[in-house]
Task: structure prediction
Amino acid sequence: MANPTMKIGEIIDLLLANTGQNMTEDIMYQWFEELYRMVRETKWSWNWLWEGRVTFEPSTTSDAVLWSGVEGNNYITLDGGGSVLALALNVWTWKKTGRVFYWDERLYRVVNGGAHNNNRLYIDKPLHNVITSQKLKFCRQNHAFRTSSIKTVEVDFLKKVSTLNDDFIRDFLVTRTWTEEGAPITWKVDDNFYLPRPVSAPLVGSTVGATFVAGTYYYFWAYVDQESGLISQPGPVLEYTATLNQQPVVSYGSTNLGEHTYGLRLFRSSVNPKRVRVPMYAVNGPSSDARAGVVGMDSERDYMWQTGTAGDKHPTDAANTVTDTLSDTALLKKEKYYDGPWTTIDMVPCPDDVYSFDVYRLNNWGFRPSGSDYIDLGRNNQVLELLRMGIHQFTELQNRDATSFRNGVVQFRQQLAYLLREDRTAASEDPGVDRHRDYRSIKNISEYDPTKYWHWTS
Result:
């Protein structure tokens, strides 16, 4: 069942009229973002979707590529003094940053692949035992989703996998991992996993003479784990004034080298932004029709980007810059920066092959709002009803006192809980198989009575 939608700009005008307020649109947009994000973090019957992905094959091993490490160090080194940046792509590449390797019944995650020392892979914890000239296989265990809640994970045609929590691991398992790799049989959630935030702002070092609209633009970088799909928080913002027909060539800070070996993605606003917190769109990456992903509600796309050569800036290549050639029309076809909650799952054991898997997750909304965007209004006017009540609590704080604000918050939460209790699926009128009392085989077809509620006369 498709729900009605409405343009955000029209909703903002409606809320301003409903409350009789004269505050700036900038404040109202920020209030709207806070409230609508809260509404979409609620487990409405209409707010779930299936997202399908595939796992990745582990890296290949070779007798010519051996690794060593000293107990207590937080890195391993490539034997022979070679550079990890020069290895074959099926063995190691910066796009594999975030993968894990298994050593002596422990998993170690690679968090940096050669950015500070090109002979080393830095890991997430000190080695518990020495490694001496060993072949290591790097496996993609984690996958990130734009959601605050995951209901189920289904892998290929295998038995439905179940989640593990910390209590189960403590009570029944000796260790968190019990095999190096294989077909996933369970999964666990990591609610607190995130990528590091870029520390350098974009820097425009030169321009290229070509079509470009003069005016003010906002830019920032974000780190991206291409395989898991996770994107970091924004780095420092550059406010850049462009000259007519001069396309900016953008680097990552003065050195143009990342502190980490996750990909660097550049995001940009439309020309002459009217508000402080505006939608930002990816500059370096394929357009929407060239990306893999699913289409969710609100006509937004939740992408796990392709892992080919297109897209993110190489974090260890100082010569790799990004030239902004995009008009505002072309920019809107790019991925919009998602500023909402993420949930990361770890497959256990780490997948040993390519498996298709599907995740049933809450369809959170976490975008910086634009007046031209359409949003889902839910059923029975749920969203507009809550937005009006939510804005009321802010106006109480602005016009009265903290006590009135608290009363407004309580009323909003009560109404949210009430509407959630009354929420029904589109198929709620069908009793479903779980309502039938008699599941025995009926051998005599004459016992079937279509006029009876339960259909079987017995």
Observations:
- Confidence is low (pLDDT under 50) at residues 287-309.
